[in-house]
Amino acid sequence: xxxxxxxxxxxxxxxxxxxxxxxxxxxxxxxxxxxxxxxxxxxxxxxxxxxxxxxxxxxxxxxxxxxxxxxxxxxxxxxxxxxxxxxxxxxxxxxxxxxxxxxxxxxxxxxxxxxxxxxxxxxxxxxxxxxxxxxxxxxxxxxxxxxxxxxxxxxxxxxxxxxxxxxxxxxxxxxxxxxxxxxxxxxxxx
Length: 190
What we know:
Endonuclease III, domain 1; 11 helices
């Protein structure tokens, strides 16, 4: 059972993330070098600009037109050209490997956490850390109950942690995640 996602502070964008697994996956893809709220609002902006959010449509979209949609002010991402290409590649992989259904990544074949993590890491733009964070988001907020998901998500799967977008459920938890990230960056500089 999916709970309501509350990442962006924008009710419509959060409702899309809650109801559309592809939107959530694209939001995670965009979550780099921009604030989390900006990244996860991106799917709603994209949907509005191209008239829908469908993996096959995005995969087959003219690359220049998709990039232009990313560039409309306010841009979907700080790096609209490269992120438009990554979004298109992600959608092409979803079409090719999962029949255009993003949720098939975690539903098809009743996979355990390790298998879901492996599937996520096979996606364009999803390295080890991003895949673990997304797996934690699925488990903590999207109702995915695959066995071993917490172990496979590593520290991001810990109960009661405030490490990533997977832990944001309200403005207070957003502040705690930001504090954790700031402390982690400071510690890394030492």
